[in-house]
Amino acid sequence: MSTLSSLAAAFRQTSYPVGGHGRRNIQILKEALDGLDGKLESDIYGTGESIESFQAEMAAYLGKEKAVFFPSGTMAQQIALRIWCDEKGSRKVAYHPLSHLEIHEEDGLKELHQIESILLGEKDRLIRLDEIIELKDDIACLLIELPQREIGGDLPLFEELVAISAHCRAKGIMLHLDGARLYEVLPYYQKTAAELCTLFDSVYISFYKGIGGIAGAILAGDEAFTAKSKVWKRRYGGDLISLYPYYLSASYYFKQREPKMGQYFEEAVELAVLFNSCQHVTTLPRVPVTNMFHVHIAMPKEKLEPILLELYAETSVGLIHYLRESSEGICSFEISIGDAFAQIPKDRLKLTFERLAAVLREG
Ligand SMILES: Cc1ncc(COP(=O)(O)O)c(C=O)c1O
């Protein structure tokens, strides 16, 4: 039996969650496979028409020579950095202090590859070009995450990225893109994925965040890089005999949702305005640059939680299922807009924020 917090349980009862694409249940896979011919051949250890055509489609989308499907981004990115370290003869890479590799992967890079990570910049802001230029260490690769998830999905200006890329090329530093949420940044930059990816030597994308699939990742780059990544995929045990539940669902939801990223972005901007109109509430960034943002509410958890429980019961609009509390008694959470937001009747959304604003005003 699963144990849900009271907030998570109340959130589940609501009819209109504001974030995401809906419940993560097995209907996601059932729907994706529903229209497919049961005689479609399975992939076998990374080969076969269906996986190869999906990889070719993703390589073209990203403007790279080749693309390889991986069960996870964690695996794909550690491998990418290892390949670049071998190629450059250096055991150092650099990335943001709140990179997924630094805070969510149990030191995989260090433990498995003896790769040292240089943390660039500060936790609460993006890496700056001058910090890259001033870097004294001889790094093999710089990893840039777009958007920078842990600071609300913030993004550098496109011109800054161009300058970072030019600097890395001039210095022989490989540039890797953590594009777990790559599609989500395209409406802001007004670029195609391929236009953005020309700035990078290797790219990883995910299929279960904005795309809402089950799991899985693509790692893309030139022919020599991706050939090496396949060897490492095998060493990691990532060469499952069949990965089709992942890439077939990835393909299905990619087609459905990649074209909707502009809509999700606009809706995130609209929702952030509603949050910011409430006292004690600020969003990070104040005006979102993707479909995601963080919400900070200056109120301790034990006070805010009952307010949300009452709000959910009254409006059936679910704002969030968890609260993180900082030492200063400020609660925060992350919102990523998907298909669910458009389902909320506008008057109900308005009512929810009127009620929230009223109770927060009373404090
Ligand atoms: C920015 C970023 N990079 C990498 C990953 C790793 O992806 P996976 O869960 O497929 O290993 C994640 C997952 O949340 C992520 O948010």
From TrEMBL:
Transmembrane segments: none annotated. Pfam families: Beta_elim_lyase. The keyword GTP-binding does not apply. Residues 42-296 form the Aromatic amino acid beta-eliminating lyase/threonine aldolase domain. The keyword NAD does not apply. Its cofactor is pyridoxal 5'-phosphate. Keywords: Pyridoxal phosphate. InterPro entries: ArAA_b-elim_lyase/Thr_aldolase, PyrdxlP-dep_Trfase, PyrdxlP-dep_Trfase_major, PyrdxlP-dep_Trfase_small. Belongs to the threonine aldolase family. This is Aromatic amino acid beta-eliminating lyase/threonine aldolase domain-containing protein.
